[in-house]
Amino acid sequence: MRFGINLFPTVSPAEKPAAQHFDECLRLAELAEELGYDHVKTVEHHFTPYGGYSPDPVTFLAAAAARTSTIRLVTGAVIPAFTHPAQLAGKLAMLDNISHGRLSVGFGRAFLPDEFEAFQVCIDESRSRFTEGVEACRRLWSEQDVVWDGQYHKFGPVTLLPRPFQRPHPPMLVATARTPESCEAAGAAGYGLMMVPSINKVDQVQHMLDVYRTAWDAAGHDPSTQDVHMSYTCYLAEDDREARRLGGKYSRHTNAVMARAVAAWSRTSSADYRGYRQVVEKVRTSDFDKQVAGSKVLVGGPDEVAEKVATIRGWFGDVTLSLQVISGNQPVAESIRTMRLFADHVLPRFSA
Amino acid sequence: MRFGINLFPTVSPAEKPAAQHFDECLRLAELAEELGYDHVKTVEHHFTPYGGYSPDPVTFLAAAAARTSTIRLVTGAVIPAFTHPAQLAGKLAMLDNISHGRLSVGFGRAFLPDEFEAFQVCIDESRSRFTEGVEACRRLWSEQDVVWDGQYHKFGPVTLLPRPFQRPHPPMLVATARTPESCEAAGAAGYGLMMVPSINKVDQVQHMLDVYRTAWDAAGHDPSTQDVHMSYTCYLAEDDREARRLGGKYSRHTNAVMARAVAAWSRTSSADYRGYRQVVEKVRTSDFDKQVAGSKVLVGGPDEVAEKVATIRGWFGDVTLSLQVISGNQPVAESIRTMRLFADHVLPRFSA
User: Fold this and answer.
1) What pTM does this model have?
2) Superfamily of domain covering B2-350
């Protein structure tokens, strides 16, 4: 298994000034490299404390690239629906070069109605814009004199500069919430998968993985390059009860922030987001103790968390875990404690 | 006067791999800070060796921010016509925080027909898109619950995150090639000005500056915050003739690269770019020795260049010079030599 950190901000300006947030995140990125983590990841969200401190993951990851030398940098995710593919592919190619090939690009469809509204993108076009954007980036990276005649963009012949460091292109992953068809498409295309297992039942996730891996094998892709990223909220303390008490507090904070960000789902419906309102509601009202007990979050003392990781490996195999270590408005010292305890006591038992 | 470096790439993948380019530029940014330069600047261009290694100046400047601690970071320029204002304002606000308030944002209209075509933006909308984009960024930075009802974008109420570090917003500058009306608008708005004096006659530049400063004063802006950036190709060697020989070689290389990038002007005309075809042609066919003699470029030995800076100060006053120190495909050692010689022999005579 591989383990990285996910720096998904869920704070507001009143809680933590942005400069402090970025200082802390750069420090955590350096620490992650020092402690042997596989990657540092961050998100694209806009306008609310739910991820809004990171409207452009590339900007933060470029700073992180300049402070590190071996750890991988992962967008989790960028949203092709909100950015022209030449802009998106261009800045990602810059980051791939600045980092000497340490970039993996996760693409997402986005799911917040308010974001679609602000960017004047119809949420029902989410899937088609995503598919077009991902494919346009892939071609801009891997081909020269690209002519693109899509539903949303037309351009070319153009040759993207800079050429990416990794050839034919950086590893690409797609984020999926719950749709087996998306998993199948990702497997067939040879893309990695980014999942949030906590929002689905274990057997649903297993089904999605089966579909993905079957499609991967059927397409003849190299099994050794398959990459499945799973995000987990992670909070460790020496003492199990202390970890649960504080982890619970930050988890409730995150849920409250998310609840406000997704409020628009109460007045939105889209065929492309079937059942989404319920999923969101489920997360928002989730029972933290049940999440702990069900290995939906990695919260507890080191031994307890190691058991949960073993459970997850038993369910899903040798996947890559992205540990959300800054949930809620937790002090950076607690993020550091989580990362150190995990690196000392859990990581060695599972890493390859 | 203040002096910064301008890292405008004019190389192709065949000449210099992008990873090497960025390694070198980060090294030059660190050196610039060490030597007491005021700022490091880079450009937004797409698809050709004329700036194409820098499709997103924010990505490079974020890496530079992480490697430096005092030098200012300047976009020279970002192009609002090609990016949604919320995306543009968002990533720039991230950079402002990552750098703890060291960002100055230069905005440009763009001028390459091929770029407008690729982004499916009508070149005749260049000015209106620029004006709308700059104003939308300013409001997203300085106000909360922004409602924007523009010609090209409609959104809100939204509150941009992160809030910029500098309040109400980072210093803003606008790039202008030759239009006195743009200078007047910039002065009235309290924005800085970015100019390329080599493409105009001295008295034209003086007229533009007069118009700008008159509008600035008339609007009652603080004279001490006025900022005029002028870009100059800069190449120094201990020996005057050696400097002219090599500076001329790189200048011709840059002109050839530019000539290919602007080729589309031969089949393009736009009321918003009156006389542009001729200006471009003039630069392309410019006589290097005349440029040296006319203080259009800062090329020569240290004393010779100091005399040129004195001439420029005499013409234009205490402006900020951005020195293009990577013109052509010059080895980084020569950029370093230029920066050291300038810092040792010229900078102390003119800096405040």
Assistant:
1) 0.97
2) Luciferase-like domain (3.20.20.30)
